[in-house]
């Protein structure tokens, strides 16, 4: 495969604009997995320069997309870019913090490339303060991208990058790299101040931007309340946790002694806490302890190789993001973390292909039997692609029930529910649709009650809770109905009030 083809697989996960319900992350995750398969298959074409260039190009293009979105011009480029309201920007990543993390990765790559120029044989002392024009241009573009994201996580990441750059560069008296990082940070600060004014000048729309988000009280959706609730859940089941994927149900079913996080909670927005609440404290300590031990053994604070510094920096900003959200649930960041690990394994040699893993000498045996190794690699790639195609077809089938009849594929315009009900891979999505479409009657009350209780573990939202309560009452299970009613009132007070008012006249 030519180099441009490999580069395309590096860029696509970041720039893909397409997604579709009922689970919006499925299509982006499938595409990212497909790209990962091709990158693994053609890994002999990868090297540090190509990987980091892919990150920087993706960050620069995303920054341009973010500016287009921020100034209300996204509709002109539909469907190539995700649609937003003016004053909002997240590129094609669909979340402001993910967009900000990508700009942070781009800045790390840019600083790493400049560090390469300071290697022996680089600029002479008289030139050491000069920077290439493209470096300033890219830094400004990335600063603008991070600023339009209005991400508080992005602010923390750029402060972290400035600190890491100073830590790695100053012992070798590389003054210009920390100065460059600080100037990029200052450009970001100026952009944060100026962009809301420019937005109002251009569109008449007022936006508080990052400063507004810093001073605005988040109310019941604050991280403080969220983490307090998660700690309560951990205390209830500390050893084995609530089970993987059960946090949203645990949050709904629990009545807290204090303030309650007022949204459906399917992630703890902190990786160690999420592992603890779903897998248990021992598993969380073991996983985080193992990662901490690996970092301690590698001693990144002593790193002097620019390529390896970039890789550690990428892992650091993803790690910081993981303490506030869950980027590792998304394909682009999974690939970035994996490629960073490969860059560290490569020894930091810029143009050397990334190494194959050597497990018990198997890699050496494959080298001795190269044709067999190539066939085996091709077979594994084909198998993965076929599996991904099967998953995509299954998701496409189930998604038809969520579309208007005239928008569905011809084969699914009639008896759609019967055709998708037997889906195995996306069974919960199909059952959720079945619950939503099934009117409650005395004849089916028992079946609806069982289905609705199961769906509380998939999506404990008002329409599901109402079906649980109404079917329980119809079956004479008043105690259970009261139990769920109390939790409905606590979790969704406005929806509960609307529903209670509607039923008061019956």
From TrEMBL:
Whose protein is this, by species?
Answer: Polaromonas naphthalenivorans (strain CJ2)
Q: Which GO terms describe its cellular component?
A: membrane
Localization in the cell: Membrane
Q: Which UniProt keywords apply?
A: Membrane, Transmembrane, Transmembrane helix
Per UniProt, residues of the O-antigen ligase-related domain are 138-287
Domain (Protein glycosylation ligase) spans 89-114
Q: What is its main location?
A: membrane
Q: What is this protein called?
A: O-antigen polymerase
* Record-linked InterPro entries: O-antigen_ligase-rel_domated, PglL_A, WaaL-like, Wzy_C_2
Name the residues that span the membrane.
27-43, 55-78, 98-116, 128-148, 154-170, 177-199, 275-295, 307-323, 375-395
Q: What's the domain of life for this entry?
A: Bacteria
Task: Specify the protein's topology with respect to the membrane.
Answer: Multi-pass membrane protein
Which residue ranges does the record assign to the Virulence factor membrane-bound polymerase C-terminal domain? Answer: 310-501
């Amino acid at each position: 495969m030519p180099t441009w083809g490999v580069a395309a697989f590096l860029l696509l996960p970041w720039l893909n604009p397409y997604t579709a319900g009922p689970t919006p992350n499925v299509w982006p995750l499938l595409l990212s997995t497909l790209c990962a398969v091709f990158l693994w298959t053609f890994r002999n074409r990868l090297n540090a320069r190509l990987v980091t260039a892919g990150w920087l190009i993706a960050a620069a293009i995303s920054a341009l997309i973010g500016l287009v979105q921020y100034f209300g011009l996204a509709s002109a480029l539909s469907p190539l870019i995700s649609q937003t309201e003016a004053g909002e920007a997240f590129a094609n990543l669909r979340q402001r913090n993910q967009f900000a993390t990508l700009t942070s990765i781009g800045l790390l790559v840019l600083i790493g490339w400049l560090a390469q120029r300071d290697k022996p044989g680089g600029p002479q002392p008289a030139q050491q303060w000069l920077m290439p024009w493209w470096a300033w241009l890219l830094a400004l573009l990335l600063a603008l991208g991070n600023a339009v994201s209005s991400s508080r996580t992005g602010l923390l990441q750029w402060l972290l990058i400035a600190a890491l750059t100073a830590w790695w560069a100053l012992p070798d008296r590389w003054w210009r790299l920390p100065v460059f990082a600080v100037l990029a940070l200052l450009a970001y600060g100026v952009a944060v101040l100026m962009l809301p004014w420019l937005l109002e000048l251009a569109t008449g729309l007022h936006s508080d931007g990052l400063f507004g988000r810093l001073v605005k009280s988040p109310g019941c959706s604050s991280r403080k309340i969220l983490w307090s609730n998660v700690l309560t859940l951990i205390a209830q089941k500390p050893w084995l946790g609530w089970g993987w994927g059960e946090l949203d149900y645990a949050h709904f079913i629990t009545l807290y002694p204090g303030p309650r996080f007022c949204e459906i909670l399917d992630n703890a927005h902190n990786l160690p806490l999420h592992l603890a609440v779903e897998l248990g404290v021992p598993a969380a300590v073991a996983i985080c302890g193992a990662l901490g031990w690996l970092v301690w053994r590698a001693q990144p604070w002593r790193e002097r190789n620019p390529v390896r510094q970039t890789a550690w920096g990428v892992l650091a900003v993803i790690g910081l993001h993981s303490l506030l959200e869950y980027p590792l649930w998304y394909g682009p960041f999974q690939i970035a973390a994996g490629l960073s690990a490969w860059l560290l394994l490569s020894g930091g040699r810029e143009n050397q292909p990334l190494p194959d893993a050597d497990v018990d000498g198997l890699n050496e045996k494959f080298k001795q039997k190269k044709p067999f190794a190539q066939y085996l690699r091709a077979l594994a790639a084909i198998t993965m692609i076929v599996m991904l195609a099967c998953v995509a077809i299954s998701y496409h089938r189930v998604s038809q029930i969520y579309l208007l009849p005239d928008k569905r594929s011809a084969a699914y315009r009639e008896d759609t529910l019967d055709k998708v009900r037997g889906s195995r891979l996306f069974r919960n999505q199909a059952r959720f649709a079945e619950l939503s479409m099934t009117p409650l009657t005395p004849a089916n009350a028992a079946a609806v009650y069982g289905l609705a209780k199961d769906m509380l573990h998939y999506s404990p939202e008002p329409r599901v809770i109402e079906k649980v309560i109404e079917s329980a009452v119809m079956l004479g299970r008043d105690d259970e109905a009261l139990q769920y009613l109390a939790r409905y009132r606590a979790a969704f007070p406005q929806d509960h009030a609307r529903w209670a008012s509607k039923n008061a006249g019956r």
